[in-house]
Amino acid sequence: MIRLHSEAENIKVPQGKARDWPTPSQHVRMIHLDMGRKYWEPEYIADFIRQLSWLKMNTLFMHLQEDEAFRLHDPIKYCKTVDSKQICLAPPEGHYTKQTIQTFEQIATEHHINIIPALEIPSHA
Q1: pTM (2 d.p.)
Q2: What is the rounded CA–CA span in Å between residue 102 and residue 108?
Q3: CB 70 within 8 A of CB 90
Q4: Are 22 and 30 in contact (CB under 8 A)?
Q5: Of 24, 57, 78, 80, whose CB neighbour count within 10 A is largest?
Q6: pLDDT tens, 56-110?
Q7: CA neighbor of 118 nearest in space, from 62, 67, 70
Q8: Helix (H, G, I), strand (E, B) or coil at 26
C-alpha cells in the first residue's frame, strides 16, 4: 500500500479488508543487523531504525561483535598500552561510541523500536 501510494496518482484498489497485527506467536517482529562483520555508518543505522517502524518491525537485534571487529569503543575500558603502543579491542575507525549508541536508543524509542544489543561469549575453544 505504501508503494502504491508513493508511485501512483488516482490509482484505485479493489475494496477489501486488511488486518495486520501481531498474533501471540508473532509479538516480536525483529530484524538482525550484523554490525560485527560490517561497519555501518551511524547515519545509515539511524535511518534504518526509522524505516523499521514503516515496515511494522518492533525490534532491532544489533550483533555488535564478531572475530572481524568489536564495534563498541571506550578507550578507557578497551585500550591498553603495550611497549608504548596503544592496543584496542575496537578498530581505530569503524566503532560506535557510547554517545552514538545512546542516539540509536533515542531514535528507536521515538519510533517504538526495541534494541537488543548482542555480544557473544567465546564458546568454541
Answers
A1: 0.71
A2: 10
A3: yes
A4: no
A5: 57
A6: 899 999 998 887 777 887 766 777 888 988 887 766 678 888 899 999 999 999 9
A7: 62
A8: helix
